[in-house]
Design a protein that fits this description.
This protein is of the alpha+beta class. The protein has six helices and four strands, in the order αβαββααααβ. Strands 1-4 form a two-stranded parallel ribbon. The N and C termini lie far apart (46 Å).
């Protein structure tokens, strides 16, 4: 019967549907985010647990950040909010676990979720980053 055929064989893949998923993991934050973080740290008051409001003016004067437009100010605003709840830990731009290991350990789930045959995890340290 038709029900048995469907249960045994996987459904045909529609034409043009991707078979590969590449997941990019940045081991380091971009340079502009590191710069914003450094400047915010310089204006951080650990007693008050906040970053001085003048930091936004300072960021606007940093030449290397100007080509990024509004992104540095948005990132700084978010980071200032995080400092209020997390304290100085908010300045840590890395995560306390191995993202690549987590992705690789859950490869089967990612494949099934994205309906692909292959998952590649690439880092900014990989020899051939596309």
């Amino acid at each position: 019967s038709r029900a048995r055929e469907t249960a045994r064989a996987p459904p045909p893949r529609p034409a043009g549907k991707p078979t590969l998923a590449r997941i990019y993991v940045a081991r380091e934050a971009p340079q502009w985010k590191q710069t914003v973080c450094r400047i915010l740290k310089e204006h951080y008051d650990p007693v008050a647990n906040e970053v001085a409001a003048e930091v936004l003016r300072v960021l606007g004067q940093v030449e290397e950040l100007k080509p990024r437009g509004k992104f540095p100010a948005q990132f700084a605003a978010k980071l200032r909010g995080d400092v209020k709840t997390m304290g100085a830990k908010a300045f840590d731009l890395s995560v306390p676990f191995d993202e690549v290991a987590v992705l690789e350990a859950n490869e089967w789930y990612i494949k099934s979720l994205l309906e692909v045959d292959t998952v590649e995890v690439i880092t900014d340290k990989s020899p051939a980053v596309p």
